[in-house]
Amino acid sequence: QKEVEQNSGPLSVPEGAIASLNCTYSDRGSQSFFWYRQYSGKSPELIMSIYSNGDKEDGRFTAQLNKASQYVSLLIRDSQPSDSATYLCAVYTGRRALTFGSGTRLQVQP
Amino acid sequence: DGGITQSPKYLFRKEGQNVTLSCEQNLNHDAMYWYRQDPGQGLRLIYYSQIVNDFQKGDIAEGYSVSREKKESFPLTVTSAQKNPTAFYLCASSMTRIRNTGELFFGEGSRLTVL
Question: Which of A86, A101, B69, B102 could pair with A4 in a Cys bridge, judged by C-beta atoms 3.0 to 4.6 Å apart?
Fold first, then answer.
């Protein structure tokens, strides 16, 4: 079982819709959870971090964490073509460094 | 501006050659990391260093070597022992208390191709 799992996609949504990206993790001791956005050929950039159960909103982005289910998600409201990218879920267990999922490719159709 | 500088951006290597990828940061971060990314995959940890003159193996350290002689610099050598070195290499840094900052700062990456 991979430590951090994501559906590779592509996830295709129309412009203006809500995109929902999901991630599960295996280590119940995980402490911190992050979403990075990566455009093709570029390096990842942090868009959201979440540390406790519940929702965290930042502009059009909402991160949701459910530690009991070992599940973290990212919602993107009013999706724009510029949101088309690969979204990487990353988890910190308190050891070493962030562990990344394989990423979900999002396509926003104009 | 503060940031992480990786060089070269593109590198071609013949089989059997060692190559060194440079990573320099002026963010005054304590920790530095090297990740490898293959097409359609996430980032896999090669090596990391929490302090100067100390570094630890990640998940895929075989065929790679690093040094951390200065806080600002964390070069990665891809040796001829690395069987499949063609990949996108990402260097990152963070403050030591990564849980609090919540962010890895990434360089722009180095794309290595073995001919």
Answer: A101
